């Protein structure tokens, strides 16, 4: 089941304090980016954030689940969706630990 655009817009709005947040449609679901760096997915109207050590400490006991069949586990973020400040902080913590996006080589 594809995610609802209203849910995607809500999540993006809730994370507004963690950079320029964008949602990019991918295979019927959404990749979530901050300043061009992907940090999570929205699948089936659920937010999944890439797991990091800092995120694990911040969440204390994160729920982990695959965002789609065959995917690696991510943090399934449900309880923080209503708390924009805490959700944004999780994203900021996560972004600090993720590698910089790879630059694309332009073909000549």
Describe this structure in words.
The protein has 108 residues and is an alpha+beta fold. The chain has one domain: Yope Regulator, Chain: A, CATH 3.30.1460. The protein is 29% helix and 27% strand. It is built from 3 helices and 6 strands. The protein has helices at residues 5-14, 53-59, 84-97, and strands at 21-26, 29-34, 37-43, 46-49, 64-65, 74-77. Strands 1-2-3-4-6-5 form a 6-stranded antiparallel beta sheet. Strand 5 (64-65) and strand 6 (74-77) form a beta hairpin. The longest helix is centred in the C-terminal third of the chain and has 14 residues, at 84-97. It is globular and about 45 Å long. The mean pLDDT is 91.
Share of β-strand residues: 25-35%
The tally of structural domains comes to 1
Q: Architecture, CATH level 2?
A: 2-Layer Sandwich
Helix proportion? 25-40%
Number of helices: 3
What is the CA-CA span between the terminal residues?
A: 40 Å
Count the E strands: 6
The strands making up the biggest β-sheet line up spatially as 1-2-3-4-6-5
Return Rg in Å: 14 Å
Largest sheet: 6 strands, antiparallel
Structural class: alpha+beta
CATH topology: the name is: Yope Regulator, Chain: A
State the CATH superfamily name: YgaC/TfoX-N like chaperone
- Unreliable stretches, pLDDT < 50, 5 or more residues? none
Sequence of secondary-structure elements:
HEEEEHEEH
CATH C-level class is Alpha Beta
Mean pLDDT comes to 91
| Global outline | globular
């Amino acid at each position: 089941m594809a995610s609802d655009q209203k849910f995607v817009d809500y999540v993006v709005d809730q994370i507004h304090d963690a950079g320029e947040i964008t949602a990019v449609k991918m295979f019927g679901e959404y990749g979530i980016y901050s300043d061009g760096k992907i940090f999570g997915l929205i699948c089936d109207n659920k937010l999944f954030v890439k797991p990091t050590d800092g995120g694990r400490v911040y969440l204390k006991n994160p729920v982990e689940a695959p965002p789609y069949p065959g995917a690696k586990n991510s943090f399934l973020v449900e309880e923080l969706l209503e708390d924009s400040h805490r959700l944004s902080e999780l994203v900021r913590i996560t972004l600090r630990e993720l590698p910089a996006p790879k630059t694309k080589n332009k073909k000549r």
